[in-house]
Design brief:
217 residues, mainly beta, seven-stranded mixed β-sheet
């Protein structure tokens, strides 16, 4: 189908009027504007453009869509876990300044989970990332952008990639439960599908899914 619609939940924030050069990449510009609201922009398998809030991969409120467990008939083929402490921020400080503001705006979002090894003000200290944009004009918008960036960047990180039997019904943003004892993933190990490669034919091989970076607790 033609990508005619932008599906969204009616975000409440607006950005100031902008002027862009003729050679500006329209897709990257649109993604930047979404990030300013704590949202992300992507296309679903039906060709619709979706504007959705950035999901926290560690949220206890994730709604499970799929389960892949070790054993015959599960569809799970293999799992790769990669962990990193690079860019382990536990706070996001966002500034907004432009001609439509009477004064610059600023807000901060921090990792306040008492169980997090990188809790703001805990043994890890305070390690913020700073971000400035002339397209933010209110404190509320700065806060939304800070929360969205924190959900994508906070804490020590892990990325899980798994291969499975092709599942054409899966969407980016779906929540997947992975269970495999050798990978130390027990029931309740939830991940957010970020991107995937799916073969075009039934006999063309496996589907490889990369999950969204998540915080290690």
């Amino acid at each position: 189908t033609n990508p005619t619609y932008v599906l969204h939940d009616t975000p409440v924030y607006m950005v100031p009027d902008q002027v862009y050069d003729a050679g500006t990449d329209p897709w990257e510009t649109a993604r930047e504007l979404a990030e300013l609201m704590g949202y992300e922009l992507w296309f679903d398998r039906d060709g619709n453009c979706r504007l959705t809030q950035v999901m926290d991969p560690n949220s206890p409120n994730l709604q499970q869509h799929w389960t892949y467990a070790e054993g015959p008939g599960s569809g799970l083929l293999r799992i790769i876990r990669e962990q990193s402490n690079a860019e382990a921020y536990n706070g996001q400080i966002v500034y907004g300044e432009n001609s439509s503001n009477s004064s610059p705006v600023r807000d901060i979002a921090t990792d306040d989970d008492i169980n997090s090894p990188t809790r703001w003000g805990g043994s890890y200290g305070k390690v913020p990332e700073f971000w400035q944009s002339d397209k933010i004009r209110t404190v509320q918008q700065a806060h939304a952008a800070a929360v969205g960036r924190l959900n994508q960047r906070k804490g020590l990180t892990e990325v899980v990639t798994f291969a499975c039997v092709p599942n054409p019904a899966m969407e980016p943003g779906d929540v997947v439960e992975l269970i495999r004892s050798k990978s130390k993933l027990n029931a309740g190990s939830y991940f957010v599908a970020d991107r995937y490669q799916i073969p075009l034919g039934a006999a063309d091989g496996e589907m490889v899914v990369t999950c969204r970076q998540r915080r290690l607790v």
